[in-house]
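Final report, Chapter 2: Outcomes

The project's central promise was a pipeline that accepts a single protein chain and returns its three-dimensional structure in a standardized token representation, suitable for archiving and comparison. That pipeline is now operational. To close this chapter, we reproduce one record exactly as it appears in the project archive, with the input sequence first and the structure output second.
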Amino acid sequence: MAVGAFLGLGLNWAGVEGMVEAETVGTVAMVGKEVGDLFLRLLQMLVVPLIVSSLITGITGMGDLRTLGSIGGRAITFYLTSSFLAIVTGVIVVNLIKPGEGAELALLEDGAVEGLVTQAPGGLGVVLWEQLESLIPKNPLAAATAGDMLPVIFFSLLIGVFISIAEHREGSADASVVRRFFSGLFDVMMQMTLFVVKFAPVGVFGFTLYAAAGKGPAAFQVLGWYVLAVFVALLIHATITLPLILRITTGRSPIAYMKSMTTALVTAFSTASSNGTLPLTMQNAEDAGVKPQVTSFVLPLGATINMDGTALYEAVAVLFIAQVYGLDLSITQQAVVALTALLASIGAAGIPHAGMVMMVVVLNAVGLPTSAVALILAVDRILDMCRTTVNVWSDSVAAAVVDSRS
């Protein structure tokens, strides 16, 4: 990452100074992106079979299905609590820094992307219903092909539950065969993950080179205070709130645990994809001593619905946009932003820029123009990398917390 940033920023500076042709800088940046994309595709290749096999193996390995309910309840409680704390942190920071006050709207609109959002979703009730409806796949294979993880997770959970029912209550030998198949598939996928991990430095270098050479430091100039507000809020949540939860509930050293998750966190930062990072997150967590039956359930679920960084970012971004437009949102309106950001983050896909799409829901909830999403697009990739890292760190802490109580 350091080498990619050094070379990329140097190349970007040389291009700005006219020492290197802009076309050459762009070409090098795209080569870096293509190299990074190859690594990301390798990770994404693992995601669906790994999620399916890990969830089914985790559920069938629990024996008594009441254990599933206990682990699931603790996981969901952690997800909601940590995301809520993240949003509160973001709201407090953005009200203190006020990054949108005095910002020149016309200057931001110069970089807007027309037609980014063509139609806003309906009200909060419609959003809630759509979230529930999206859990149930019309075709599980089609959902897996499309990378739609919520229905894949829901279907996998059902498969695991009914394998357990058939095997333990009915004494079905065929169900035992199915269980062993998924257990074997999970072992194979973990071995494949270990192989793909060896290429992580190459992928990280490529993505960092692309970001540094292609964007350079200029992206921060106009939106500097906004970037600072998001970064400070994410930093507080990642280095204070989550470590405190980890220490209090598990007695683990947050520093030692974070070190054990280094590969996953660095990969999350460079790829901006929590789903793509999932294989590494699971491997790192197990190496840190978290039980496989916990990682196989908590982490795939968390990679889809536990989005602390995304929830925080959406709340800060919407309040920033309101400030840019000269609007002073009331406490009630800010509470609506917080609630909607929490719900929207649950439905955000674990892929790059998913939070940007879900922000439309939050903007619509308080009557702000949905086209305003384009105002912050220039720095979204860099902030996406930061919030994805927080998402993965939160998932990792969730696994340790649930593990300590199981």
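Archive annotation: Residues 2-404 form a domain with the Proton glutamate symport protein fold (CATH 1.10.3860.10).
This record, like all others produced under the grant, will remain available to the consortium after the project formally closes.
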